[in-house]
Amino acid sequence: MFERLNAYRIMWVLVLFDLPTETKKEKKIASGFRKQILKDGFMMFQFSMYIRHCPSRENAEAHIKRVKKILPEHGHVAILCVTDKQFGEIEIFYGKKPSEVPIGNQQLELF
């Protein structure tokens, strides 16, 4: 069954985290976590907030599972999934001036 891509089916996965970085070992663990989510296709939105565009909820759930498998033992990690429509309503400010909303990647999947 073919489902048309639309702003309510396309998802964004947000990973927000606060990991301890006081010791050399903790810094290595935090850096490793960041590197692994980058390897999975996430991009940095803010220093401890990474986002990933997913064409469907099923695809988003697969990436959420991968993040859960690499969760560090210590620190706080939150995973949030929103529709493309919801993400498009974001307002970004640098100082007091609004900024342009970053345009997500348009991807065409053939299979």
From TrEMBL:
GO terms for biological process: defense response to virus; maintenance of CRISPR repeat elements. Its cofactor is Mg(2+). Belongs to the CRISPR-associated endoribonuclease Cas2 protein family. Homodimer, forms a heterotetramer with a Cas1 homodimer. CRISPR (clustered regularly interspaced short palindromic repeat), is an adaptive immune system that provides protection against mobile genetic elements (viruses, transposable elements and conjugative plasmids). CRISPR clusters contain sequences complementary to antecedent mobile elements and target invading nucleic acids. CRISPR clusters are transcribed and processed into CRISPR RNA (crRNA). Functions as a ssRNA-specific endoribonuclease. Involved in the integration of spacer DNA into the CRISPR cassette. The lineage of its organism: Bacteria, Pseudomonadati, Bacteroidota, Cytophagia, Cytophagales. GO terms for molecular function: hydrolase activity; metal ion binding; RNA endonuclease activity. Keywords: Antiviral defense, Endonuclease, Hydrolase, Magnesium, Metal-binding, Nuclease. The keyword Cytoplasm does not apply. Its EC number is 3.1.-.-. NCBIfam families: cas2. Pfam families: CRISPR_Cas2. Mg(2+) binds at D18. This is CRISPR-associated endoribonuclease Cas2. It comes from the Bacteria. It is an enzyme of class 3 (hydrolase).
